[in-house]
Design brief:
The complex is a heterodimer of chains A (406) and B (261). Chain A is mainly α and 406 residues long. Chain A is built from 15 helices and three strands. Chain B is built from seven helices and 14 strands. In chain B, strands 3, 6, 7, 8, 9, 12 and 13 form a seven-stranded mixed sheet that branches. Chain B has a three-stranded antiparallel sheet with strand order 1-2-14, with no helix packed on it. A two-stranded parallel sheet of chain B has the order 4-5. The chains are: A mainly alpha (406), B alpha/beta (261).
Chain lengths: 406, 261
């Protein structure tokens, strides 16, 4: 009986616990749903606010977020449908405005319009394409042209290419942000385009030099052409853009070659000659006539050579003195040291050869003398000694052979 | 730095599609600075060399002010309009392959959990105690560093030597660009697609060649930051030559104001 009562109690208890768990689960689900709903509402509200302010792109993003939380939310769906059409329309409008500017050679306002189009509709492929042309046209040579009164970039394009539309090439090549704003006396470069021969006589054609082309030119130093008034609407647009856009940073004025030279000098002063040579070589790679670096290279190699000479590494020392001499032809000390290094080196090896010979170490003796002969075949008795040693060696080998045969 | 704290049970949205790939807003657009370093030492004077404590101070500034150090690979996706980047993104690059990158800069970068891109010229690797070795480069690559090319001999790619005809010049610079890539590819078992022009110098022929040889990003030393529409083969880069923090901060421009309304 007691057992039955206990069993009943257990069953009741289990039912209560599972009921509570079920209840708790439902309760937390409810809270979760409420939180989701709150999030959706907050996105919708922010979206509405943006839409009312006319910031359609941001409003669209908010509706999209609302839809991520609640895919069926009708308000969000309607908002998106409404805005998609509107955003595309605006993007297209700005793209077209951008194209108008671009075709007039007004790159900066054009760029702004394309960016605005993309801000309205991030997947506007045509606007994106205009912003990222990334074509590397090969220009090999150019002619310098000074703009005369009455000349515009399109007229110059007509003169050289026979095609006035190529004024865009001139504007891009010369980093001119607005092709209509050139001035008399301005020097421009007319590049020769591959496959488009110049119409004029090929005079003063210069090879393309190191320059950093900018496919979105932003030159601000353009003076306005006095005799050609700028269209009022365009003028307004330009002024507006100039006011709003943050000034581009000035060009990097620090010459990288110079900093390598400075580093070389610092290493030289610290007596780190090998390191100094590495830096001065970088300078010479870029400016082969850099007198300071050439002088330092001569001095660095000289110091390096002297160090090697003191360490009795005469052959390496000789080579370093020779390099130093290449950089500074007028270096009698270098020549003296080269001679001294060579003589000392030969003397040492000649003597080593003699010592080996005395100990009947013929192979070693020949090797030492060969080192000497490679530098100077007429040095002392070296040629004769080698000859003698080789004959002796041959005889010895013959004796060995005959002994073996016996 | 603002940290986002999430509570248990809170509902958050994770967008599946990358939003704002170009970092555009009505107020302007995102730009990414690439910082350029060379040598490091405990003490040094030349602008090419940065004392360790100054470098540490600069990295600390980045960390404490919410900058996100990204890789050139990530920047490439941004430039290809494929991915968005954290708002204050910045790339760290170190040129030439001095040993001090391994000995001095790396421990500091590790301290802040930053990675960098190294541009090495292959003739210099392992030649002296002053130069980084292939083993050291492998070790750094393993920990997330990127290794880019810087030609073989650190030559000026835009300079035609005296007495060298155009054909010989073009073939020489092609060798400089292709061989350095091949050597790094082989030594580090990678496809090298990043390049730094020695002295920051390039012209249209060089750009054309880089594209043909498979380089995807090439950096100059033209100061400034890069928007998504910058040419990936002619990126701007700011050299860190001065030591004052004010000058360093001025190189960290991450947004270009321009009304796009």
């Amino acid at each position: 009986m007691k057992k039955n009562i206990a069993l009943i109690w257990i069953v009741i208890l289990l039912t209560m616990v599972s009921g509570c768990a079920e209840h708790f689960k439902k309760f937390s689900q409810k809270i979760h749903e409420r939180k989701k709903e709150n999030l959706v509402q907050s996105y919708l509200q922010t979206g509405n606010e943006y839409e009312n302010k006319g910031n359609l792109a941001e409003a669209y993003k908010q509706y999209k977020l609302a839809l991520t939380v609640s895919p069926q939310n009708q308000e969000a769906v309607k908002g998106i449908d409404r805005l998609e059409e509107e955003l595309l329309k605006w993007a297209e409008k700005y793209y077209q405005e951008g194209m108008n500017f671009y075709n007039q050679g007004k790159y900066r306002p054009a760029r702004r319009k394309f960016l605005t189009a993309l801000n309205f509709w991030p997947d506007h492929s045509k606007a994106l394409k205009m912003l990222t042309p990334r074509k590397h046209i090969k220009y090999k040579k150019y002619i310098e042209h000074i703009i005369k009164p009455g000349e515009s970039l399109s007229k110059i394009a007509m003169i050289y290419y026979g095609d006035y539309r190529k004024f865009l090439v001139l504007a891009e090549y010369n980093n001119i942000a607005d092709a209509s704003l050139t001035h008399v006396g301005q020097k421009i470069r007319v590049p020769e385009i591959e496959g488009v021969p110049f119409l004029t006589e090929k005079q003063d054609i210069k090879p393309e030099e190191a320059r950093t082309p900018d496919l979105a030119p932003l030159d601000r130093k353009i003076k306005k052409e006095e005799e050609k008034p700028v269209d009022e609407e365009i003028k307004e647009e330009l002024e507006e853009t100039v006011d709003e856009e943050v000034e581009e940073e000035p060009e990097e004025t620090v010459d990288k070659v110079e900093i390598y030279r400075d580093q070389g000098v610092e290493f030289f002063n610290q007596m780190k000659y090998q390191e100094a040579i590495t830096e001065f070589n970088k300078v010479i790679n870029a400016n082969p006539d850099d007198a300071i670096s050439l002088e330092y290279l001569a001095r660095s190699h000289f110091q390096l050579a002297k160090g090697l000479f003191e360490k009795k590494d005469y052959l390496k020392a000789k080579k370093e003195f020779e390099v130093s001499l290449q950089y500074n032809k007028n270096c009698p000390t270098c020549q003296e040291y080269i001679k001294k290094s060579e003589e000392t080196y030969m003397e040492i090896h000649y003597k080593l050869g003699v010592a080996h010979f005395g100990k009947e170490q013929l192979i070693e003796a020949i090797m030492e003398w060969e080192v000497v002969r490679a530098i100077d075949s007429n040095y002392k008795e070296v040629a004769n000694n080698i000859k003698k040693a080789k004959i002796l060696l041959k005889r010895l080998e013959e004796i060995k052979k005959s002994q073996k045969a016996k | 730095m603002k940290t986002l704290l999430l509570k248990k049970g809170e509902v958050i949205v994770i967008p599946l599609k990358e939003k704002n790939k170009g970092g555009l807003t009505v107020d302007g657009f995102q730009v990414v600075p690439i910082l350029s370093y060379h040598r490091f030492a405990d003490n040094c004077d030349s602008p090419l060399c940065l004392p360790a404590n100054v470098f540490d101070q600069q990295m600390k500034y980045l960390k404490e002010n919410g900058y996100r150090v990204i890789s050139l690979g990530e920047l490439l996706e941004f430039l290809e309009y494929r991915n968005s980047l954290p708002k204050k993104s910045v790339v760290i690059s170190i040129d030439d392959g001095y040993r001090s990158v391994y000995n001095i800069a790396w421990p500091i970068l590790k301290k802040y959990d930053f990675r960098a891109t190294l541009f090495i010229y292959t003739d210099f690797v392992g030649v002296s105690k002053n130069a980084i070795t292939w083993d050291q480069l492998r070790e750094m690559k393993k920990s997330g560093f990127e290794i880019g090319a810087h030609t073989m001999s650190h030559c000026d790619l835009t300079r035609q030597n005296k007495g060298e005809d155009t054909e010989a010049y073009m073939s020489r610079i092609e060798k400089e660009l292709s061989m350095s890539k091949q050597i790094i590819d082989k030594k580090l078992n990678q496809n090298t697609v990043f390049l730094a022009f020695p002295y920051g110098r390039y012209d249209q022929s060089v750009l054309d060649m880089c594209k043909r040889l498979g380089y995807k990003i090439a950096v100059s030393v033209k100061r400034g930051s890069n928007p998504f529409f910058a040419d990936p083969l002619a990126l701007r880069r700011s050299q860190i030559l001065k030591r004052d923090i004010k000058s360093f901060i001025s190189r960290l421009k991450t947004f270009n104001k321009l009304s796009l309304e």
